[in-house]
Amino acid sequence: MTSLSISTYPGIPEIQAQDDLATIIGDVIQASAEGIAAGDILVVTSKIVSKAEGRQVAATDLDEAISTETVRVVASRPHPGGVTQIVENRQGLILAAAGVDNSNTPDGTVLLLPDDPDASAQALCTVLRTRFEVPIGIIISDTLGRAWREGQTDTAIGAAGVQVFEDYRGTEDSFGNILSASTAAVADEIAGAGDLVKRKVSGRPVALVRGLQDLVLTDDELSDPAHTAKSLIRPSENDMFRLGSKEAYAQGFEDGHVTARASES
Amino acid sequence: MTSLSISTYPGIPEIQAQDDLATIIGDVIQASAEGIAAGDILVVTSKIVSKAEGRQVAATDLDEAISTETVRVVASRPHPGGVTQIVENRQGLILAAAGVDNSNTPDGTVLLLPDDPDASAQALCTVLRTRFEVPIGIIISDTLGRAWREGQTDTAIGAAGVQVFEDYRGTEDSFGNILSASTAAVADEIAGAGDLVKRKVSGRPVALVRGLQDLVLTDDELSDPAHTAKSLIRPSENDMFRLGSKEAYAQGFEDGHVTARASES
């Protein structure tokens, strides 16, 4: 009994600005052996969404492009090859390089993240649900680093038609204890699972995840803001790591110094 | 063409202290329709490893059990229900409650993480490779929170027989740019993918991931320390979030105050 299968669609062409991504993906699905079925979830690499949305921009200076996308600097660390900066970007994500990508782009250009990845997911979801007349979910993925752990994992930055959390809070375990703090970020797990298949062959930016129909929403639930990738971003008032340790220490040192001086005079 | 399938083995009994977990899992595999094949990866929930290793301990006071497992406090935040503490625990993981679990345990007891999850994975891997005479991988998973993002994802805390990273550094993209910062933490993505299936039915603590044989190591590579879940933990000298912002600020304030006072006198 296979509970979950993940595959990729072959034949997705290199995407260009102004391409109609939903139609291109729909045509590929229609021509494929896998097709699409009720309860399927598509994991779409953000890069092709960005390209279709014309987010490839001229940039002679990568650092300048990164500054433009940065809302605030969270932490920075010099290393032999330059400086790693972790920032909050325009989409509210905390990540390196503000999500500006200069891989897989022609010289002199960089690729920005989709302006509103949840809206991009919603648009794809609506067109594909209408065309194939089945409830499906869309997750737009990007590759993000993490605090405390090495390496990156693919993460959900846009979502539509799919539950992003599975909430166990308030349910009882088999010993009758209430599970108080268990909310699985299933959309992030799905994005990572999609990467496991997409990474294997280049030119496969869309993964088909089949077997999680319990997470796929009805048409009526589609516009519920609880089901967005934005809701996966922790609000700043609950964020215990809003600044890097070095940066927070420096701010504290400055304030402590000023306070002591003020009380002396 | 399905590239990856994930299923669970039925019939794994409630695990008790001193149970021979490798034999129990081996027997379940042998009796199953799925069986096991070269290149398969098993994702094993840490809870059953802990139980077999006798890590269920009497604890009348959960907070006391958490302190015992804590090496240092990283951050804490009061909230209406108590205080959330993020700590570094004995296994080097940064997580809430030091990995001490009081769900699915009888009243008056808590469950600690396996003492050395990589060693636990190695032991399972060796026994199962010998019994079934195929190269397989083992990932021991636990549910961890993240900085900046809501919800938890299943993460690799122990690994054996499987690459934990896929390293793209130094490879070229299709435009000839060198990819400098791309190391996928595939073991964490696999742990999360396993959760997507295990979560669906209770009492399914082992997921079978089939289709990632390129990540499974040969017998000769089994003891290479590069392929451990420990290597997924960022070394403290590279960790920009070693302390919570509030804690680092307070330390800085104190030091700034003392420095100013000293320069006055």
TrEMBL record, chains A, B:
Residues 12-211 form the Coenzyme F420:L-glutamate ligase-like domain. InterPro entries: F420-0_g-glutamyl_ligase, F420-0_gamma-glut_ligase-dom. The keyword Ligase applies. Gene3D superfamilies: CofE-like. This is Coenzyme F420:L-glutamate ligase-like domain-containing protein. Pfam families: F420_ligase. Keywords: GTP-binding, Ligase, Magnesium, Manganese, Metal-binding, Nucleotide-binding, Potassium. Signal peptide: none annotated. The keyword Magnesium applies.
